[in-house]
Amino acid sequence: MGLSIRAYARHRGVSDTAVHKAIRTGRITPEADGTIDPQRADRDWAKNSDSPREGTARRAETVAVKEPASEPAAPTFHTGGTSLLQARTVNEVVKAQTNKVRLAQLKGDLVDRAQAIAQVFKLARSERDAWLNWPARVSAQLASQLGVDAHTLHVALEAAVREHLQELGEVRPRVD
């Protein structure tokens, strides 16, 4: 009969949650009665676990040298696989990107998205209005040149322009 999960966790110097996780992932195997043989589990734990990275091992040696032997070792904290160095690197990359955007904005290379959309809308509206007014401006001149009724030509041109504008309105430009 071996140790309980909590007793093995104390023996190992880890939480009972870590032992449960080791059992779940297959790093260690409990006995048939649910207890844990400490010698076999220690061997399996060492064999089935990743060895610490070089940087982690070097930091651990430095800490071990600085600490007096009579005091207990400081607890280790795991950050879900992200090291402090990785977090600092990500932070520096984000700062660099932010500064790059700020610089481009100061240079005038960037524009406000809402202002750009409003300007495009304003230009499209004035273009549409110009086309809607065009048949009234040119229908009389064209009618006299072609020898047709001015009103009939005006109605035909206006219908054709509205149909064309309706087709153009179905196109939805993306401003992403």
Structure, explained:
By secondary structure, the protein is mostly helical. Helices cover 68% and strands 0% of the residues. The chain is built from seven helices and no strands. It has helices at 5-12, 16-25, 38-48, 54-66, 84-107, 113-146, 150-169. Helix 1 packs across helix 2. The chain is elongated, with a radius of gyration of 38 Å.
Quick description:
This protein is an all-alpha fold and 176 residues long. Helix content is 68%, strand content 0%.
State the helicity in percent bands.
Answer: 55-70%
How much is the average pLDDT?
82
- Category from helices, strands and their pairing: mainly alpha
Question: In percent terms, what proportion of residues is strand?
Answer: under 5%
* Low-pLDDT segments: 62-78
The coarse overall form would be elongated
String of helices and strands? HHHHHHH
How would you sum up the major sheet? none
Secondary structure tally, helices: 7
**What Rg is obtained from the alpha carbons, in whole angstroms?**
38 Å
User: What is the terminal separation in angstroms?
Assistant: 66 Å
Number of strands: 0
List the helices and strands and how they pair.
Elements: H1 5-12, H2 16-25, H3 38-48, H4 54-66, H5 84-107, H6 113-146, H7 150-169
Helix pairs in contact: 1-2, 6-7
